[in-house]
Amino acid sequence: MSTSSTRLPEGRYGRSSDQRADRTLKVVGAVLSVLMLGLIGWFGYHYVAQNEISGEVIGFEVSDDDAVKVQLEVHKDAGVDGYCTVRSQAENGAEVGRADFRFDKDATRVDEVVTLRTTSRATSAELVGCHAE
Questions:
Q1: pTM across the whole model
Q2: How many CB atoms lie under 10 A from the CB of residue 58?
Q3: What number is the average pLDDT over the span 38-55?
């Protein structure tokens, strides 16, 4: 057995240009991945930071066949006016009521019971969303 340097035959196992192409593809992939993560982060930040009003349904009570009382807790920046949309559904899933409720108080936390009028007996109340004006 001789100890000579092991040298692969030229052209048999790929060219150096293939290695350059692989390296270029890796760099392009990494740059595109970083850009995509940055874009997702930017949209996420603006969605959270720009949402100056948020709310949640604390509870609801079906008071009549044509009304639901909904307790909303709304958090907003001081001085921001906005509204929250609430909807209600019947037992079969059909929407029987939808309304916007305004919150113009200067308080940063508003806890209020609102009455949502419905077209028939409701079985649920759901907050669709809140928006600043």
A1: 0.61
A2: 12
A3: 79
